[in-house]
Amino acid sequence: MPLVTTKEMFEKSMKEHFAIGAFNINNMEFIQAITDAAEEAKSPVILQVSSSAIKYARMKYLVKMVEAAVETTTIPIALHLDHGPDFETCKMCIDNGFTSVMIDGSKYNFEENVALTKQVVDYAHERGVVVEAEIGKLAGVEDDVNVADADARYTDPEQAYEFVEKTGCDSLAIAIGTSHGAYKFKGDAKLRFDILQKIKEKLPNTPIVLHGASSVVPELVEICNHNGGDIPGAKGCPDEMLKQAGESGVSKINVDTDLRLAMTAQIRKVFYEEPSIFDPRKYLGAARDEIKKTVLHKMNEVFGSAHKA
């Protein structure tokens, strides 16, 4: 099965009230673990790449590894640019075979965000590629995204409607209380489902995306810390909130931090328990298994995407 766009995936997710996981990839182990999990769960999946991941792994390597995954699995896979910072990056990804791109103009004012998003939409749609955009600002730090708590703001439903009308974007990332990185909440986790509901009422046919939605799995944090790590006070979105989001109209939920924690937890554990090991396959294999386990849990227990391929 060739790479697909997210269009049909999202139509099904909106109709059947489940979310599709969009998992960030950085190397071969991530790609294998995620696609193996999706194959086992019979779940559609979105492999997404940040601009910093492209710099790290290099465009051709990433695309070829994803092509290998597509050739050896039977489930629908979309290749997506996460947080595209400018038109040039989006164009580069479209020209290299990505089936979906995100242009993140949320750091600009409304008019500038509209103009930039429209430019990407026009280029992408001419080439059969779909576009995700963002309105509202999520706090937190992840790769090239860095927004202070004081600058974060919720998405305004009226503005969201106007934005989609003016840009023609295919899906919309909104801010309802999630944040990037491993330190999402200082107190109790809270998501503004009332805002989500208002946005869905105004945009019933527009797939909604939730960024900054890792659970920051406590067990993985504990394994990291027990084996020499230093990640105190990390806190993410509880599974039950993400499950509710998927059932309440969110079509795409992004996961990055949890996969990093899964990989790091197992590598630290192997190094700590078996310090004589220096074969990368020993610790990267364990890391790959933990990533797969983490993704399977999301698909089966949280997002509801299992058996939806």
Walk me through this protein's architecture:
The chain is of the alpha/beta class and 309 residues long. It has a single domain (7-303), classed as Alpha-Beta Barrel (TIM Barrel). 48% of the residues lie in helices and 17% in strands. It has 12 helices and 11 strands. The protein has helices at 7-16, 28-41, 51-57, 59-71, 87-95, 110-125, 157-167, 193-202, 218-226, 239-247, 257-273, 280-303; strands at residues 20-24, 45-50, 77-84, 100-103, 130-135, 139-142, 145-147, 171-174, 179-180, 208-210, 250-255. An 8-stranded parallel beta barrel has the order 1-2-3-4-5-8-10-11, surrounded by 9 helices. Strands 7-6-9 form a 3-stranded mixed beta sheet, with no helix packed on it. The longest helix is centred in the last third of the chain and has 24 residues, at 280-303. The chain is globular and about 60 Å long. Mean pLDDT is 93; it is low at 145-151.
How are the elements arranged and paired?
Blueprint (H helix, E strand, L loop, with lengths): L6 H10 L3 E5 L3 H14 L3 E6 H7 L1 H13 L5 E8 L2 H9 L4 E4 L6 H16 L4 E6 L3 E4 L2 E3 L9 H11 L3 E4 L4 E2 L12 H10 L5 E3 L7 H9 L12 H9 L2 E6 L1 H17 L6 H24 L6
Parallel strand pairs: 1-2, 1-11, 2-3, 3-4, 4-5, 5-8, 6-9, 8-10, 10-11
Antiparallel strand pairs: 6-7
Helix pairs in contact: 2-4, 2-12, 5-6, 7-8, 9-11, 10-12, 11-12
